[in-house]
């Protein structure tokens, strides 16, 4: 190999390697997902506006029967007092010495209950309830504290309109995120 | 050339081993003739016989079997609960992966990475999905930081001090090096629409846990973590993919991450309204309290240990951390907060990470109350318990960061007390 060819070869290699490391830092590997994004299993979160609430409906009367079968084992026959968190009662207890944070005493938005039951309940079989059943269970729980009427259908129209007793009970700390300012030190 | 080098080396090794055999043969009669070994009893057993074989994945010494996470779960729903890091048994600042604290809402999913994707959608120019093998090809960053459950130390709100070991009352916090892809990179690839302000993150566990996170934080320093202390995430820490938000409440560091949806307003999910909010005395609740405030804990001496020498010199050692930045100072008191002394901060002192502190203490043998008080670079000082309760009431449950006190009795036993 002549010296000239060697020099050219080395020069080419250097140039080539420099260009390899000087261009884009990485390859964009995301796949277009417009279709996926529309599918029900990728639209689980229900917004306070009711966005994403599915079709269907149920009443408190229907919910009472379901509750006894699907929920009472952990939440107690009346929705309070068993191994799982209390769901009903205690409305107005938040300023007392023994506040109880039940769905009806503490939760902010009615949509949260549908969202949470659908994704996480019952714990031994998430995603096993039908949408009609979830609406009925929500209606039953709300009705226990007269937040929703007994024989009216809870559905994608009526559910977002339910007013939770503690709806205005939350103070957003973000975005202020003030430095913790507790002064008692010398 | 390569071949001849190999041959030469082989020949050399052959000759060398032959020499070794010869030398051994020659020396054999000398020691074989001895009837008694030189060190029959004075060397330990493990020096007089070959040790165990190699292992594919190392385990702690069998003599360290008591160093475990303490599990506290609902017996009726064993997948819902926590396990506590044994901070009192550890030193340094890095939490071993098998001891990182856990909080699961419905068990640990065993996710096949080949079937897992991350979907980024909502207010973006182009919804995108990423599989794990693609994410592994992106440029990665590493960040050592603590993750602390919002409910850590919550027994502190109760009237009587809990008599649990340091880690089993305050160990819903751990510190690890997390490595992965900056969230910002993937959001830029999808194209952020100007209306986007919040992001709903969702996990692929059997609670499909969802929370809303300000977009601003995700663009700042959030990592899509794939590695934990150098190895791929443990299943209980989100394998194959989790969010890491340095300094922010544990619940937001969503494990088993499957979706990030950009939206205008928070979704008001269960875990940002019914849970992880702090009820105050006036009946109103603090919500979106994301940052974990400055805190410290003496890990040694602490409850469960006994001081053997009275009087004696002991190394008071512990951990300090703040979700707002670096720890700048830790003071230690041995008289229940009447006098304070600066502890040594051990390098490295990292932003939003565990900092180890220590101070030698000459115990005179009298009853004493050991406390630590941390400050961070924003000027925040860890509050006393009474000051924290004065401001927040006692029904908040989350974000308890008050000074922790250990009472040393005359006999050298240690109790958890409320000293202020």
Helix content of chain B: 10-25%
State the helix count of chain A.
7
Proportion in β-strands of chain A: under 5%
Q: What structural category characterises the helix and strand content of chain B?
A: alpha+beta
> Average pLDDT across residues of chain A?
89
How do the strands line up in the largest sheet of chain A?
2-3
Question: What number is the mean pLDDT of chain B?
Answer: 92
Order of helices and strands of chain A: HEHEHHHHHEE
Number of DSSP E strands of chain A = 4
Number of helices of chain B: 7
- Cα end-to-end separation of chain A: 82 Å
Describe this structure in words.
The complex is a heterodimer of chains A (186) and B (420). Chain A has 186 residues and is mainly α. Chain A has a domain at 54-161: Cytochrome Bc1 Complex, Chain D, domain 2 (Orthogonal Bundle). Chain A has helices at residues 3-22, 34-38, 60-70, 72-75, 103-106, 110-120, 131-144; strands at 31-32, 57-58, 154-155, 170-172. Chain A has a two-stranded antiparallel sheet with strand order 2-3. The longest helix of chain A is centred in the N-terminal third of the chain and has 20 residues, at 3-22. Chain A is globular, with a radius of gyration of 28 Å. The termini of chain A are far apart. In chain A, 34% of the residues are buried. The mean pLDDT of chain A is 89. By secondary structure, chain B is an alpha+beta fold. Chain B has two domains: 80-286, Oxidoreductase, molybdopterin-binding domain (Sulfite Oxidase, Chain A, domain 2), CATH 3.90.420; 295-417, Immunoglobulin-like (Sandwich). Chain B is built from seven helices and 24 strands. Chain B has a five-stranded mixed sheet with strand order 5-4-13-8-9. In chain B, strands 6, 7, 10, 11 and 12 form a five-stranded antiparallel sheet that branches. In chain B, strand 8 and strand 9 form a beta hairpin. Chain B starts with a helix and ends with a strand. The relative contact order of chain B is 0.12. The chains are: A mainly alpha (186), B alpha+beta (420). At the A-B interface, strand 1, helix 2, helix 6 and strand 4 of A face strand 2, strand 4, strand 5, helix 4 and strand 13 of B.
């Amino acid at each position: 190999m002549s010296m000239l060819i060697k020099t050219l070869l080395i020069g080419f290699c250097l140039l080539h390697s420099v260009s390899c490391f000087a261009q884009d830092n990485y390859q964009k590997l995301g796949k277009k997902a417009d279709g996926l994004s529309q599918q029900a299993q990728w639209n689980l979160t229900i917004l306070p506006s009711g966005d994403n609430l599915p079709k269907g409906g149920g009443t408190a009367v229907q919910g009472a029967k379901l509750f006894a079968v699907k929920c009472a084992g952990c939440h107690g026959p009346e929705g309070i007092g068993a191994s799982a968190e209390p769901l009903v009662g205690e409305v107005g207890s938040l300023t007392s010495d023994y506040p109880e944070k039940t769905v009806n005493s503490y939760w902010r938005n009615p949509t949260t209950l549908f969202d949470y039951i659908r994704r996480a309940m019952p714990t031994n079989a998430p995603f096993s309830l039908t949408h009609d059943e979830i609406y009925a269970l929500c209606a039953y729980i709300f009705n226990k504290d007269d937040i929703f009427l007994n024989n009216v259908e809870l559905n994608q129209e009526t559910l977002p309109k339910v007013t939770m007793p503690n709806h205005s009970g939350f103070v957003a700390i973000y975005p202020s995120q003030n430095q913790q300012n507790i002064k008692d030190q010398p | 050339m390569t071949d001849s080098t190999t041959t030469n080396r082989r020949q050399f090794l052959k000759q060398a081993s032959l020499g070794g055999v010869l030398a051994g043969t020659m020396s054999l009669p000398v020691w074989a003739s001895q009837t008694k070994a030189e060190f029959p009893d004075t060397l330990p057993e493990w020096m007089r016989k070959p040790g165990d074989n190699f292992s594919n994945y190392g385990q702690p010494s069998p003599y360290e079997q008591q160093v475990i996470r303490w599990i506290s779960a609902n017996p009726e729903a064993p997948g819902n609960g926590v396990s506590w890091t044994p901070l009192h048994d550890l030193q340094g600042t890095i939490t071993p992966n098998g001891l990182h604290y856990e909080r699961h809402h419905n068990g640990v999913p065993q996710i096949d990475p080949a079937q897992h994707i991350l979907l980024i959608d909502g207010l973006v120019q182009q919804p995108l999905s990423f599989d794990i093998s693609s994410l592994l090809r992106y440029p990665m960053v590493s960040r050592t930081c603590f993750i602390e459950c919002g409910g850590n130390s919550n027994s502190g709100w109760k009237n009587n001090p809990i008599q649990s070991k340091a880690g089993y009352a305050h160990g819903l916090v751990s510190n690890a090096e997390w490595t992965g892809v900056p969230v910002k990179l993937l959001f830029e690839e999808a194209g952020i629409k100007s209306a986007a302000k919040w992001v709903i993150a969702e996990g692929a566990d059997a609670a499909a846990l969802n929370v809303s996170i300000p977009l601003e934080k995700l663009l700042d320093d959030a990592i899509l973590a794939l590695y934990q202390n150098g190895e791929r995430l443990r299943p209980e820490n989100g394998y194959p993919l989790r969010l890491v938000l340095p300094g922010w409440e544990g619940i937001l560091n969503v494990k088993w991450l499957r979706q990030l949806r950009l939206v205008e307003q928070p979704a008001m999910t269960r875990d940002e309204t019914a849970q992880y909010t702090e009820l105050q005395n006036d009946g109103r609740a603090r919500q979106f309290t994301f940052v974990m405030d400055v805190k410290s804990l003496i890990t040694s001496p602490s409850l469960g240990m006994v001081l053997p020498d009275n009087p004696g010199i002991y190394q008071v050692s512990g951990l300090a951390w703040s979700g707002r930045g670096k720890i700048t100072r830790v003071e230690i008191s041995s008289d229940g907060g009447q006098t304070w002394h600066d502890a040594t901060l051990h390098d490295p002192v990292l932003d939003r990470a565990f900092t180890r502190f220590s101070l030698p203490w000459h115990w005179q043998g009298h009853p004493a109350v050991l406390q630590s008080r941390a400050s961070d670079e924003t000027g925040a000082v860890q509050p006393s318990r009474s000051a924290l309760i004065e401001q927040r009431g006692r029904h908040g449950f989350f974000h308890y960061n008050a000074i922790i006190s250990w009472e040393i009795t005359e006999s050298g036993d240690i109790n958890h007390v409320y000293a202020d």
